[in-house]
Design a protein that fits this description.
Layout: E1 2-7, E2 10-12, E3 18-26, E4 31-39, E5 46-52, E6 57-59, E7 67-72, E8 77-82, E9 91-101, E10 104-109, E11 113-117
Parallel strand pairs: 2-11
Antiparallel strand pairs: 1-3, 3-8, 4-5, 4-9, 5-6, 7-8, 9-10, 9-11
Length: about 120
């Protein structure tokens, strides 16, 4: 299992920036991708961004060109740089570790960090 702790959320004005961090521990050698997801008020959880063990990245359509995912393997951390934030980006942001356990895909989640975009 992988334990994940997110941080960096807060209140920001439209057009502003935030950088989220996710530090993970545990069975890190089994991780093949790290991702960020979010869940806004009254909405389903949605995919935001992913970075694989080979550093290939993928983004949700609503954040392309504004958000950047990165990782620091030495620190067992993944980051989400969010620029030009909009009110519709308001959500709880979750970090997810995708791993393989005896050939079976598994996912572990953090507790989430709140991002509020408002003037």
């Amino acid at each position: 299992q992988v334990q994940l702790v997110e941080s960096g959320g807060g209140l920001v004005q439209p057009g502003g920036s935030l950088r989220l961090s996710c530090v993970f521990s545990g069975s890190v050698s089994s991780i093949y991708a790290m991702g960020w997801y979010r869940q806004g008020p009254g909405k389903q959880r949605e995919f935001v961004a992913q970075i694989t063990s080979s550093s290939s990245t993928n983004y949700g359509n609503s954040v392309k060109g504004r958000f950047t995912i990165s990782r620091d393997n030495a620190k067992n951390a993944v980051y989400l740089q969010m620029n030009n934030l909009k009110p519709e980006d308001t959500a709880v942001y979750y970090c997810r570790a995708s791993r393989s356990e005896a050939g079976v895909p598994r996912g572990d989640w953090g507790q989430g960090t709140q991002v509020t975009v408002s003037s």
